[in-house]
Amino acid sequence: MKEVLDKALDKAKDAEVFSVKLEKYPVSFRGNKLKSIKSQLGRSISLRVNVNGKLGFSSDSNVDNPEEFVNRAIATAQMGPECPYQFSKSDYMTAVDLFDPKTVTIDVEDSVEMGYEILGKILKKAPGTHNDVDLVKEFLEVTYISGDVEKTYYKTLFSYDISNLQVREDGFIYIDEHDSSCKFVDDLDPALDRLIEKINLSRTTFEMPSKKLPVIFHPKTVSQFLSSLTMGLSGTYLMSGTSPLVGRMREKILDEKFSLTDDGTIPFGSGSKGFDGEGIPSGKLKLFDRGILSNYLLDLNSAYMLDMEPNGCAGRGLDSPPAPSSSNLIVATGDVPLQDMIGNIKEGILVESVIGGGQANVIAGEFSLNVSLGFLIRNGEIQGLVRNTMVAGNAYDMLRDKLEAVGDKAIRMGSVSSPYLMFKDVSISGKE
After folding, report:
1. Please, what is the average pLDDT of the chain?
2. Which letter does DSSP use for residue 336 in this model?
3. pLDDT tens-digit profile of 350-379?
4. What DSSP string describes 160-172?
5. Nearest to 15 by CA among 61, 65, 66
6. Confidence check: pLDDT of 170 > 80
7. Does the structure show a pLDDT above 60 at 258?
8. Do 295 and 425 belong together in one domain?
9. Which of 75, 100, 374, 405 has a CA-to-CA distance to 60 between 20 and 30 Å?
10. Between β-strands 411-413 and 416-418, what pairing exists: parallel, antiparallel or unpaired?
11. Within this chain, do residues 275 and 424 fall inside the same structural domain, yes or no?
């Protein structure tokens, strides 16, 4: 890779090389049976160059011909965007725990055995159901080179997705549990207990009326709100003027009960990293502090264009240029237990998972979502599953004017950690 950089600097004002080596070992079960065992080994190398103030880019899975690889990047710079900034030359890398030796040592046979044990436990409690299990371990080596700087971090990942499908006369019911982190999880019984509890709750179903009701959102569905917020916070949409948060820094945007942080330094967090997609050390960034807009998500380009400092929020795909992105999103906890939320509702629903976004304008915060898994709450108790139900609204409006309570415990779902959130007067559409 150093050869690529040297050849690029012979023809360009500035250059950087970003490389990711990936080893991936997925084990998949479908319909209660082992479906596939695979190993995926790959590498992505990308090059950015600054040629006469223009940005060029090329990427490939290998660089057998460094000269041709560099020339591709140089050629794209002729029609590339402006590049008024310098690539990072920081040799600093955030010290964060990303590597779990146990994740590496677990082999495919162990994953297969684990999968069969999971299926056996589900079928014992829910015979006759269709169950899928995905267990994936990954190993990443990420390297950044620019100028005299070369730095690398190593990362493990383990993820699981366990789903249960029930085929009934009134339709399908899909229930799942999933998570990912840098650490191997050898005890999935808590996830299975939650899955089986929801299977039992789904035995009774209800049709909902169309009206406004209180709604509790599970941390899984809180991510729907966060997607609108992170788009609004993205330097890309701020530069284009399409973000509703343009020019509103330090303004109170949301309810004071709501705080949101982006943190790439959480030990073993699935979104944690030593540096971002442009070699800038990762950090912890308060985005909303008690409802007040405190920071944006910026890469080098958007930071320059907005006359701000880059803040380590550049994400990068295996074969794409960097762009503003979040790492681990953390919604601050409140002081209301989930059971108290449920107990205070005369009629409402608890939404655990949703499908799609309808025709909503996501950047503006609008959503219209089919409830794939939700439960009726009546007189302070969960009664059963709701069917044929949609929820709709605007994330900004709800987090500003309708946020009733914030749960006292956070649940991590991959790169998102959030408590339950309870809202008043949410628009519900049903068949009743």
Report:
1. 93
2. B
3. 999 988 655 568 889 998 889 999 999 999
4. EEEEEEEEETTEE
5. 66
6. no
7. yes
8. yes
9. 100
10. antiparallel
11. yes
| Spatial separation of the C-alpha atoms in residues 130 and 146, rounded to whole Å | 51
Kindly list the distances between the CA atom of residue 255 and the CA atoms of 94, 258, 285, 404, in Å, as whole numbers in the listed order.
32, 6, 19, 9
Please report, as a single letter, which amino acid is at residue 5: L
Same domain (yes/no): 155, 292: no
8 A C-beta contact, residue 327 and residue 287: no
Q: Do 305 and 348 belong to one domain? A: yes
- Same domain, yes or no: 376 and 250: yes
**Of 267, 260, 336, 243, nearest to 294 (Cα)?**
260
Tally of domains in the chain: 2
Look at strands 323-324 and 329-331 and give their pairing.
unpaired
Are 129 and 228 in the same domain? no
Q: How many CA atoms lie within 13 A of 4 on its CB side?
A: 31
CATH code of 177's domain: 3.30.2290.10
Among residues 157, 175, 200, the one where a domain terminates is 200
CB 166 within 8 A of CB 154: no
DSSP 371: E
> Domain residues for 402?
204-432
**Cβ(15)–Cβ(2) below 8 Å:** no
Nearest to 315 by CA among 347, 279, 348, 364: 279
Residues 218 and 194 reside in one and the same domain: no
Which of 159, 185, 200 lies at the terminal end of a domain, its last residue?
200
DSSP state of 189: H
> Do 319 and 244 reside in the same domain of the chain?
yes
CA 27 to chain centre: 22
Count Cβ atoms below 10 Å from residue 188 Cβ, excluding itself.
19
Output the pTM of the full model: 0.93
DSSP-derived secondary structure letter, 362:
G
